[in-house]
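A quick aside before the break. I want you to see a complete sequence-to-structure record at least once, exactly as it would be stored in a machine-readable document. Don't worry about memorizing anything.
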Amino acid sequence: MFCLVAKRGLVKTLRVGFFAEVYRPVTNGVVVAVDTLAQALRANGNDVTIVAPQMSGAIEEAHVIRIPSMPLPTRTPYRLAMPIPLPGALAAAADTFDLVHAHSPFVMGWTAAHIAKRRHLPLVYTYHTQFEEYAHYVPFEPNATRMATTRIVRHFADLADVVIAPTRAMADRLHDSGVSARIEVVPSGIDVRAFRDGRRSDALRARLGAAAGEPLTLLVSRLAKEKNVDLLLDAFARLRHSPLRLAIVGDGPQRPALEEHVRRLKLDRVRFMGAIARDELADVYASADVFAFPSMTETQGLVLGEASAAGLPVVAVDTPQNREGLSESGIFVPADAGAFAAALERAAGSPRAERAASAAAAERLSLETQVRRTLDLYRSLLGEAVAP
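That is the input. The structure line, written in tokens, reads:
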């Protein structure tokens, strides 16, 4: 365990405000990344307050400040925050912050920037999402939406003292888009030990749709257009004579269309599991034989690290960030159903040595490493030193 030490040599509790556009009860990669880092920083003796819009089903939580919000004009659980004027609880908490960390370039990000400017605090921004790949959610012309989104991200990033990118590929993307702020690569961390220690269970495999002796492919993903799940289903349509089974864990707006796609393809070896409690996921990974990752729009892909830590061979669409997220330890294929199908069959029979190499590659994504590097960045902005 380590902590920040002030110049006078006194132990200092760092007080950080995390500003997120979405938070629990919604579950997605950004929420998991924000929550995981906040908990890890608290475990290391720091005080992290999460500021997020009020959402349906949200419960009162310590260390969480909810901002009044209103529905968005599209069908989504996300909400539009209304932070002006600052709610009293946020104004009081902001007076205690040493540093502000934005996890979005939109309303909550600008709220973070406003607080940082008014209180002369460092501003950190983590680039979690390739927002231009989500243009299909906005009821405007897609190319214009992508261009506008790129400008918004570039402008907001240049307000930050440090921009955190989870992969070098995303740092390069930000540079190429014109961001001139300081950019540091810090992968989002996972609890490597928890996913390494998951337990394989025949009963859980049966729930996931695999009988004894049947190899099981796993996808853990939000079910949305940008996740490219159709590619995986089309690949399974090429494997009609294979014993491979597929369990899809997660939910999202595209689930009805994907279930219809399965019916249209007459696939009887695919099971939609819906959302599964996060504390059960390690056993889900351990009970599978192959992990599939068809997405091309991630900035890192936390599930790649989770699957690797569990020792699963991973078949992923070949993108720079997917290669980086897996430390080149996966099987990378073009976005082609035939190539994906062939790779899944190959991965199902991968030797134990390849699985061990996959697990070893995940070690660089440990929470301990992320917390240490994040605190180093905070320290560089605050002019403090880190104790060993």
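Two observations worth writing down. The chain has two domains: 4-189+366-386, 192-365. The first strand starts at residue 4 and ends at 5. We'll return to this after the break.
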